[in-house]
Write a structure and sequence with these properties.
Elements: E1 2-3, E2 6-7, E3 10-11, H1 12-15, H2 21-27, E4 31-36, H3 40-52, E5 58-63, H4 78-91, E6 98-100, E7 107-109
Length: about 110
């Protein structure tokens, strides 16, 4: 489960609070594993743990940041990010926007 806590027009806490997500899955008998969804080691470990768990179904809840690694998109709502991208494309209609980023040195090439 990609759990970035954001909906189209705001945070899940503001629109429709669904917390505590892991406890809800556990209440139905699921093994709930929480991880940092941007950490590849945690992702791999969670898959290994889920594969070896025999007490029932497993869900991996990956806490993520929406738009991670792209400065103008990270933690911004989808409408604001789309507006910035649309303006960039309108100003350069014959070019393709390419996002490159590693979390530190991201850039938008137009």
């Amino acid at each position: 489960l990609d759990y970035n806590k954001v909906q189209l027009d705001g945070s899940t806490k503001e629109i429709l609070d669904i917390d505590p997500v892991p406890d809800k899955w556990r209440s139905f008998g699921w093994n709930a594993i929480e991880i940092d969804g941007h950490n590849f080691s945690e992702i791999e470990n969670a898959f290994n743990e889920a594969e070896s768990y025999t007490g029932g179904p497993t869900i991996i809840i990956a806490h993520t940041v929406k738009g991670k690694g792209v400065s103008f998109m990270e933690n911004n709502d989808i409408q604001e990010s789309a507006k910035v991208l649309s303006l960039a494309m309108l100003n350069n209609p014959l070019h393709l926007a390419v996002f490159q980023g590693n979390g530190e040195n991201e850039r938008l090439e137009i």
